[in-house]
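Lecture 7, part B: from sequences to assemblies.

Below are the input chains for today's worked example.
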Amino acid sequence: MSTVLITGASGGIGYELAKLFARDHHNLVLVARSGDKLAQVAAELRAQNVTVRTIVLDLASPPAPKFLFDQMQTEGITIDVLINNAGFGAFGEFAQMSNEEIFGQIQLNITALTELTRLFLPPMLASHSGRIMNVASTAGFQPGPLMAVYYATKAYVISLSEALANEVRKSGVTVTCFCPGATHTGFAKRAGNDKSRLFQQLGAMNVEKVALDGYRAVMEGHTLAISGAHNWLVAQSTRFAPRKVVTAISRWITEPTR
Ligand SMILES: NC(=O)c1ccc[n+]([C@@H]2O[C@H](COP(=O)([O-])OP(=O)(O)OC[C@H]3O[C@@H](n4cnc5c(N)ncnc54)[C@H](OP(=O)(O)O)[C@@H]3O)[C@@H](O)[C@H]2O)c1
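Predicted structure of the full complex, as structure tokens:
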């Protein structure tokens, strides 16, 4: 039985991924800040006869990734699949945004993800097996006025993941970058973009469907997977349109409907 570590598993896409891994008899290590929610998720998933270890941790705190890795070593838990899912966005103009929101996004979406990958990848390479999935976003394919830092963090995740997938291609380890588009979870409320045209008018995907796409992508070892045919089309179109136009459209969909 393999063991899967999922960050941000107390809700949203991470929780749905945890359910899919439990269904297919993978043991789980689940990480998030909300201990009560994690305990509930763990109790639910243990009914599938898998072991579930929960770790209550704020991954935006700089020592957290190393603490998590050391904890796994101490407990003798080998991680076969790492899902870097925890992330958040913040809506607003960059100049008005608090340092906490700006650097918190960079710390969680970029630094923690990079450090966890850096820590867990070498043991996977040594055993010639393992899977890493980094959850980016379709936001990573273009600049995002009014959510500039979030979009930029996701561009980083796509770039890093595709490069690493290439570096490890002959190793038995796979690196997958998974890009959901707008999805019904707690994300938009925390980001403050739940009133955007994107969420109000263009529509968000069902979280179970999105998680299933991510689950298939990591288990099949795809390098880049975009959830939803419409999201795939939008991601392709940004490659051919003038960048100023792409950026203007990106702003328009992020603006509130009223
Ligand atoms: N929903 C969307 O529209 C959408 C679209 C594209 C990409 N994504 C990406 O998908 C991933 C999952 O998002 P989601 O939609 O499932 O959001 P969500 O419903 O807000 O869930 C986020 C998860 O991350 C955890 N988390 C947040 N901050 C954390 C921290 N500092 N340390 C540890 N855990 C933390 C949350 O748990 P706690 O609050 O308990 O810590 C929760 O379990 C994110 O990387 C997001 O950027 C989402």
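Note for the exam: The pocket of NAP is lined by residues 7-14, 32-34, 37, 57-60, 85-88, 108, 135, 137, 180, 182-183, 185-187, 190 (CB under 6 Å). Keep this in mind when comparing with the next example.
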